[in-house]
Amino acid sequence: MKQALAEKLKSVSFFRDLSEEALALVCERMVRRTVSAGSILFQKGEQARGVYILVEGAVEIYRSTPDGREQVLHTEDPVQSVAELPVFDSGPYPASGRTAADSELFFLSLDDFKRLYREHPEIADAVIRNLGQRLRALVSVVEKVSLRSIPGRVAKAILEQAEKHGAARQGGSFPLSGTQSDLAHHLATSRESVARALGDLRRKEVISTEGRRVTILSLARLVDIAEGERPPQPLQKP
């Protein structure tokens, strides 16, 4: 078990350069958890207890909007660390986390993780790089939600999923991950708004759908909508 875990941990950026001895110590300190889909791992405002390493399943990081809807900021896939930022600034969790599928995680306590990165400064360097990548992703989320209309957000989400499946081309076909409600959570809108936007894209013959499978009928038009649809801006007073 520990050898298999050590091999998986090498996929995590801040464990990658550890010696075999240090990696073995990390494995000794970790606690295995198997969690069913929909389980809350931590909530916004709670004090951080440690770091999770996701080895199977998926974890959604989300926040609630002022009107009560949920917005998924990003989804962690295996093998990846989860919620390491509060470990460094000693602050509370800035968002909530829950499993999006039945998951297997390993937990390293706050004290053990702090001791580890103090003894191995290269871990801190790797975490900083990882946080930089997350910041870039968060900027993209903010742009997606605040600068685009709902049709633009939906078109952008379709493009991103198409790219992930290698299907961002004329006639490209791929399975849309999740339900319309899941997509609405990612885009900070309602399921009804997502359904209307998808229907509009079908009527304009930009895409076709069969169940959850999406086929791109007009890549150029899809890109135009994704990049060009902006919500109306309030008039500036002279």
Summarize the structure.
The protein has 238 residues and is of the alpha+beta class. It contains 9 helices and 11 strands.
Supply the CATH class of the largest domain: Mainly Beta
Number of helices: 9
Q: What overall geometry do the principal axes of the alpha carbons give?
A: elongated
Low-confidence stretches: 230-238
Indicate the proportion of strand residues.
15-25%
Main β-sheet, in a few words?
4 strands, antiparallel
CATH fold title of the largest domain = Jelly Rolls
Class inferred from helices and paired strands: alpha+beta
Helix content: 40-55%
Explain how this protein is built.
- 30% of the residues are buried.
- The chain is 44% helix and 22% strand.
- The model is unreliable at 230-238 (pLDDT under 50).
- The protein folds into 2 domains: 1-145, Jelly Rolls; 150-227, Arc Repressor Mutant, subunit A (Orthogonal Bundle).
- The radius of gyration is 20 Å and the shape is elongated.
- Helix 4 crosses helix 5 and helix 6 (150-164) crosses helix 8.
- It contains 9 helices and 11 strands.
- The strands form 3 sheets. The chain has a 4-stranded antiparallel β-sheet. A 4-stranded antiparallel β-sheet has the order 2-7-4-5. A 3-stranded antiparallel β-sheet has the order 9-11-10.
- The chain is α+β, with helices and mostly antiparallel strands and 238 residues long.
